[in-house]
## 1
Amino acid sequence: MTYNKALNSYNQINNSIEKPEKLILMLYEGALRFAVFAKKAIQEGNIEDKVKYIIKVSNIFIELINSLDFEKGGDIAYYLNGLYAYQLELLAKANAENKPEYIDDVIRVLKGLIEAWKEETGL
């Protein structure tokens, strides 16, 4: 993909997001989708897909960590930082040990985050 095509795609997505709250929801939902794919890949013994999807979920959690505002967010930001970091640990264990149970924990947390975010933001 050329730089201009990538920039146009980004701008289209960016323009379709009305509120920053929607972007967070999209990140949570994307992480959930990729976590489900990673679990399936582990169950099927598909190492290439397992690694690909675990990296995608990990990158989303890293982006979520980087977006935290500790001054404005206070205790909630610190809590989320720890929660996201723990999810990264679970993903690393799932990758190293090929245990879908770790992914199950990540999926459970993501579902809870999605539900709480929707309730909090009214999305």
## 2
Amino acid sequence: MKYKRIFGIVLDSVGTGAAPDAAKFGDVGSDTLGHVGEYYAGKLAIPNLQKLGIANLRDQPIQGVAPVDAPLGYYGKMQEVSAGKDSMDGHWEMMGLPVDHALSLFPNGFPQDLLDKITEFSGRKCIVNTPYSGTDVIHDYGEEQMQSGDLIVYTSGDSVFQIAAHEDVIPLAELYKICEYTRGLVNEPPYVIGRVIARPYVGPDKDHFTRTANRRDFTLEPTGKTDLDRLSEANIDVIGIGKINDIFSGHGIKTGYHNESNMDGMDHVMTVMDQDFTGFAFTNLVDFDAMYGHRRNPKGFGQALMDFDQRLGEVMANMKDDDLLMLTADHGNDPGFKGTDHTREFVPLLAYSPSFTQTGQSLGTRSPFSDFGATVLDNFGLQSGAGSSFLAELK
């Protein structure tokens, strides 16, 4: 069957167990869903994900979330082939553009010549310049930044250049301008960085600082054509919800919605469901990652999953027979694991349509992530640059 509308939702960082190459990333033993389930000790209530087969796709159980005898959807998992485990790598690979070469990492901070250029451009000094938790760095240096007007510069285990500043000290427009300039410095060797991220925060003091939804990602321009471009060139509607527009630098996207939160993102999904269009609505829900994974907060992560599950029920109830829903993730970010970085994991793959007549079938382990985008393209009669469609398996 061919579908008029496909809704792809990426549960950012909701991994489902260490990938075969996890040792390369120091992530052996990571399992985002498994460890969240352990934390909740049998009280993790995600009935809609459960009905779709979230527990059926796993080799190890999720405590309190049993496999079901007859899943409503098709289930499986995907294994990444890209060189990194960042959101950019995962999303690009999903859309037919695996990242073959590792991006620049800075475990000891950024080179001084790069910081000097930013200072010359902005008139502001760069402080910190080391890998740091985003919430910890504003706690430890936010008051200094408010007094000096400097830029808090930090990174992580991923290829990211993050700049934090208090919104009352450095206006958003200025912060974005500095980040845009920085983006232009790190697009080619010797420094090729996946994302420059503006990290504004507010609050009166270190015990009350909070990061705001005015975050903005300045992502490396796609290095080739993506499946979003292929859809757009064929006059198929492409709608980006959440940070999708940032990740693809707007390429191939007809309409974009900025999310304030997961729930705001789901509001946008429901809004789009009420629209008459033919095409692909691609959503990223980042709170799992930004709010709970990086902060190693399994309680908040689990609650976000349960909140999403309730909204998932609304989506399923409002789907038309010629709608297809596909759920996945871009990487792991295990809140029960060491460190504060993303984790190299398998990601879930769930597919559902009210028109399915033969459900409860496994899609197996798909690799690369590009099988996701190839399926979308196949539905609209297009060929992917990478990956194999599983559209014919959905019946």
## 3
Amino acid sequence: MKIFSGKKFEVHIDKVKLPNGYERELEFVKHRGSVVIIPKINNEIILIRQFRPVIDKWIYELPAGTIEEGEDPLNTANRELIEEIGYEAGKMKEIISFYASPGITTEYMRLYLAEDLRYVGAKPEPYEIIEPIRLSIEEAIKMIRERKIEDAKTIIGIFTLKELLE
């Protein structure tokens, strides 16, 4: 049963039957899915420093966004890359995908590597407070180890890229 419907997701409470026959009430967020982009220029990547009001703090993240109704995920990745950091990608390739938090949401995230970047100017949404930051992969890994990067999709993206480059 849907109890709330917003622009990006719905909240449901449903009774489900588990594979062992046990029935339980389940609360979850139904989500269209999202994309995460690793913008790579030579040996550097671009992160964003963004204020997140839900946790009331600034955090470092890879550019990302929700897939619009009926939108192709690759188009979402290209759109978000321009909106958040102002770059257009000559090459965009999906490298991994994963569930954000399968215990509470259906959100499925697709991680893209964006290369051959050309600056065209950022177009952030009015509610997005974003500062792009360019740094080496090694610097980003150091920030993860120092707990300066706390965002799961960003940590997954950086370590996936590091593995691809080795």
## 4
Amino acid sequence: MTDDHAVGTARPNPPDIAVPPATRPRRPRWWRRPRWWRKATTIVLLLMFIGWLALRDTTPVGYFTSAEGRDRFVAAYDQAMAELPPPTATLDVRTTYGIVRLYRFAGAEPDRAPLVLIPGRAAASPLWADNLPDLLRLRTVYTMDLLGEPGMSVQARPIDDHQDQAGWLHQVLLQLPEPQVHLVGYSIGGWTAANTAIRQPEKIAGVTLIDPAVTFADLPVETILRSIPASVRWTPQSWRDSFNSWTAGGAPVENDPIAEMIGSGMQHYSLDLPAPTRFTDEQLLSLRMPVLVIIAEDSVMHDAQQARRNAEATLPDATVLFYEDAGHAVNGEQPDRIATDVASFLAEER
């Protein structure tokens, strides 16, 4: 900066140039518009707000937004279900929150506690197609469609909080004939399994959490921002495909039956569920049953190292495994490894 522009110095004005008097700062340009323009803007904003109030979803339960949308989802669901072995039984379990669809697959060790598989967000029973063959060599397996999510379960009552989330699943478990079960949850299904084990542990012999979301670490900001356009029903399908591919580590999702089902559910189903929140250390310390935790190194659902540290520090009776070079879609990427680790975990059953 030169001396001419230094603070406290002033250059003399040329004698033939008049110095204009001090003037007030100009108002922002938008405020200088004609008064009618300001009134029109106010009216438009008011109409937009009224339209939002009229169109916003106030239904207190999850539902398909149209009959055509449900038909499209069911077609995708049936195609994806064809990837699973034939179930030995189809169960519609009535709870005070609605009817929950389960499929029973007879497997090894019929007298031991079966595995109850809980899928992630916007998924359903077909999510476990790659895992079922190996898991059936270990135990009998139940899969379920989450209540309040796209699937064959039908929500009838609002799920207002995390106690309700545990309540409906606990009611389902009570109606299964086996005295105890092992919960196996993936992603949000992992959170659901942990939430139920914390609040309603009576029938749970053990828990396996496969890259659970919002359980040991918070969702990254990037994941939250990327999920917003993918969750809006009227956005292009390519946006949902892009998000699902990103969560799966870049794997292609076009023409994949399970990905088609998930994308259809995201587009045609309206959820009304409480957002999951991370558990406190005290809640995790209260889990007294054995817990197997699988954390994927490249997961986009949390800081994997932080999730690993928190799981190791808070769970009283846990086996924490860190899968290097694995993404969030680890259940489909490494089903053999997961089955081997679950087998070792069950072999140490207390």
